[in-house]
Amino acid sequence: MTAFPPLELDCPDPAGCPVIDRVPDWAPVGALLPGQVWYRAYDGQFGRDEYNPGYGDTRFAPIESATGRRVPTMYLAADETSALLETIFHTVDAPSAAPGPPLAAPTVPEGKLRSWLVTALESPTPAQLADFRDPALAAMGVERPQLITSPAEHYPCTRRIATAVHHDPRGVAGIIWHSRQAELTGHDPVETVVLFGDRHASGRGQWIRKEAGSRNLFEGRGRDLAEEIAARLGARIV
After folding, report:
1. Contact at 8 Å (CB) between 60 and 176?
2. C-alpha separations of 172 from 13, 128, 196 in Å
3. How many CA atoms does the CB half-sphere of 170 hold within 13 Å?
4. C-beta atoms surrounding 176 within 10 Å
5. Residue range 66-94: average pLDDT?
6. What predicted TM-score, i.e. pTM, was given to this entire model?
7. What is the tens place of the pLDDT at every residue in 179-229?
């Protein structure tokens, strides 16, 4: 059995926590429709459609099932930039306009780019997902910073919401929301998904590869994309 680090679900600052303290009254929505291309940025230790078995520290993963088993997860996005924002750049915040001395530029280790790739995939089947996209959040009275764009130090809090979604008897296969790309570019919202591997197409090789396959982030077009995102975030690749 794989030994995972203990889950961290305790809020680091309960008095100042920006994340909602209860699960909103979400509704399921159909997604991952046939013919729709999704982009995945992933660590090369996993296959292009192999779920992360339960490592890491992200907004909605890792989590455990109601029986205490670690839930495999996969992040996807409707474009490459959002795929990277939700994975390799997920802890880097956009530059702040708040008054005061400028903060030191955040950094992303260049060595990390050597092991990460981005690929285009199509799901073999549709899925029912918990809808946390902007219109759904507005209908629930939840603001984006309370769940979708809260700081990385409050990932334990957003993971509690993801855990509750996974435990819900409706048995959805994941969560769909709008990437933080809109805050960075002013463009229209981009859909982003986290999938639960115990609910959706988790056999290796089931997903349909699209475009030209996987590209690394250390050179060529992949590196150009990583440099562009770092510049938008005011970050340095070192």
Report:
1. no
2. 30, 5, 8
3. 16
4. 25
5. 90
6. 0.90
7. 987 777 777 889 999 999 999 988 888 999 998 778 999 999 999 999 998
**Measured torsion, CA atoms of residues 195, 196, 201, 205, in degrees rounded to the nearest 10:** 80
> Distance from CA of residue 121 to its chain's centroid?
16
HEC profile of the chain: CCCCCCCCCCCCCHHHCCCCCCCCCCCEEEECCCCCCEEEEEECCCCCCCCECCCCCCCCCCCECCCCCECCEEEEECCHHHHHHCCCCCCCCCCCCCCCCCCCCCEECHHHHHHEEEEEEECCCCEEEEEECHHHHHHHCCCHHHCCCCCHHHHHHHHHHHHHHHHCCCCCCEEEEECCHHHHHCCCCCEEEEEECCCCCCCCCCCEEEEEEEEECCCHHHHHHHHHHHHHCCCEEC
Report the C-alpha dihedral over residues 163, 167, 172, 177, rounded to 10 degrees. Answer: -20
| pLDDT per residue as tens digits for the range 130-185 | 999 999 999 999 999 999 999 999 999 999 999 999 999 999 999 999 998 777 77
Beta strands 107-108 and 236-237, pairing class: parallel
Burial label, 186 (beta-carbon count in 10 A; 0-12, 13-18, 19+)? exposed
Q: Of 65, 67, 66, 85, which is closest to residue 75 (Cα–Cα)?
A: 85
Tell me, what amino acid is at 167?
Answer: H
- At 4, list the tokens: 């995972």
